[in-house]
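Per your request, structure below.
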């Protein structure tokens, strides 16, 4: 990953809602439907979609569509690279 990739990740992590989403997905032990994520936060569906797009765009989470539903999970490869980058500082 490049410095620019890490900058995008840190920008995505600079929002408390997105940190809570990452934490929720981490505790889920797999994937969660967007509807289940929405139940855990006091935000609207468009706001959740905005946050999920930012997290997907930087590679922190994966999205899988099944019919009309979207399922999200942590991208463990990107998280491992981020940990490695931080440890190298």
């Amino acid at each position: 990953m490049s410095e620019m990739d890490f900058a995008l990740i840190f920008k995505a992590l600079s929002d408390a809602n997105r940190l809570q989403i990452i934490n929720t997905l981490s505790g889920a032990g797999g994937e969660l439907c967007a509807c289940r994520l929405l139940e855990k936060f006091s935000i609207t569906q468009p706001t959740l979609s905005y946050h999920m797009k930012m997290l997907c765009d930087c590679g922190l989470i994966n999205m899988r569509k099944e019919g009309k539903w979207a399922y999200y999970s942590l991208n463990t490869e990107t998280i491992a690279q981020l940990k490695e980058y931080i440890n190298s500082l």
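The helical segments are 3-12, 16-28, 34-39, 45-57, 76-88.

Regards,
D.
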